[in-house]
Specification:
It is a single chain. The protein is an alpha+beta fold. It has one helix and three strands; from the N terminus they run E-E-E-H. The longest helix has 17 residues, at about 40-55.
Length: about 55
C-alpha cells in the first residue's frame, strides 16, 4: 500500500519535466497546491505572460 502524504500548501513552488510535459506545483494560501501540466509551447507562453505582468507591476 502506498504511503499517504498530507496535502498542505507547505513547500516550495516547483516545476519538473515528466516526459513531454512540465508539471508545475504552486502552494496556495488556504492550503493545498495548484498543480498544472503544460507542454513546452504552453510553458513558453506562460513565461511570456508572467514576465509581462511582472514588468507592469
Amino acid at each position: 500500500m502506498a504511503a499517504m502524504k498530507p496535502r498542505t500548501g507547505d513547500g516550495p513552488m516547483e516545476a519538473v519535466k515528466e516526459g513531454r510535459l512540465i508539471i508545475v506545483r504552486v502552494p496556495l494560501e488556504g492550503g493545498g497546491r495548484l498543480v498544472v501540466s503544460v507542454n513546452d509551447e504552453e510553458a513558453k507562453e506562460l513565461h511570456r505572460v508572467l514576465g509581462t505582468a511582472v514588468e507592469a507591476a
